[in-house]
Design brief:
424 residues, 14 helices, 28% strand, six-stranded antiparallel beta sheet, alpha+beta, single chain, five-stranded parallel beta sheet, binds adenosine monophosphate
Length: 424
Amino acid sequence: MNILILGSGGREHALAWKMAGSPLADKLYCAPGNAGIAREAECVALDVADHRAVIAFCQTKKIDLVVVGPEVPLCAGIVDDLEAAGIKAFGPSKWAARLEGSKGFTKDLCRANKIPTAAYERFKGAATAKDYVRKKGAPIVVKADGLAAGKGVVVAETIAEAEAAIDMMFGGGLWSPAWEIVVEDCLVGEEASFFALCDGETAIALVSAQDHKRVFDGDKGPNTGGMGAYSPAPIMTPEMNDRVMNEIIHPTVRAMKAMGAPYKGVLFAGLMITKSGPQLIEYNVRFGDPECQVLMLRLMSDLVPALLAARDGQLMNFDLRWYPDAALTVVMAAKGYPGNYAKGSLIEGLDAAGMVEGVEIFHAGTKADGNRILANGGRVLNVCARGKNVREAQQRAYAAVDRIQWPDGFCRRDIGWQAVKRET
Ligand code: AMP
């Protein structure tokens, strides 16, 4: 098969690395890719937003399957356009991608199907939203509808903070003024990332993961796209797994099918495990980044037939095998991230770091300059490791981090701390 991956981050590097090991994959392409992905796939300078150009490329190169990494092209309907041109694509349709594209849509779907989620209301104007906030009290959560690259959520500790968030969102403080916001109760518990592969009708659970969103050690500082992750998440016991499938994932897949928007692809549920059980915080319609990296390290089965089965509606009798090992990834970011940062600094020591037992390094934002590797983004490297438990994976990942010479980069030193604490 000829396979095209769309995207350029650590998630796509992990997917490319896994698929490069598949006996089914003859030729791998990635658009646009990065310096690390170039080791696994031929990187092509395609504009992913230009669906016609992507289709033309697929026709020229006789692509058998397109795997879409990020949410933006999914919400823009790239899967619909590829499929209409007769090209198989893994990922949800534009209609089904509303599960990530519209928080209001997902909240209403939860309410209509009794899927556990924080109590909420939707608002199109600031005045009514503020009335609701004053009525409910703080802490309270304010969310802009629509894609906001993780920046559209404010967990407000006070009513004043919530009111400021409402004004910011309706006033254009994100990219453009929000046309609608959701205000919801603040959930208390431990967060977990849950993934299920779906074919429109059947959903099968992947292994669990947990990420670290805050930029500094001790889970402090501003939110980021994710500074590290590990799998399994100890909080996701087999019983909790079953509850999530039965109370959240299966009802969602049934509801999407019933409304004529069957969900195909990977469904990523951000969960809060509360005292009373799992609650849905949000859906994403693609693999998490950096969770995908640890999932791919733990996946024993071939990924390609799994993605094809999801696309073809054939997951009913499908089974995936996983290594029992734990996996962990440390994100190395450019100094200044998630605020302003410089691009172009030199990274050395990657080969030596890659030699540490159990270690795999995925590139999230790099560029090649001859033989040199330069930083080319905020999150730049994912230093990943497998180990018999999270502690061993953590030790290996940091041993590799310590071999990387990159004065303009930084990372958290405590990725996996909750799991390590439980293991000891
Ligand atoms: P989201 O983009 O919806 O995943 O939200 C980003 C982060 O905000 C989540 O990972 C949570 O840490 C936090 N968050 C979102 N909604 C809630 C909620 N209802 N209660 C508590 N924390 C929340």
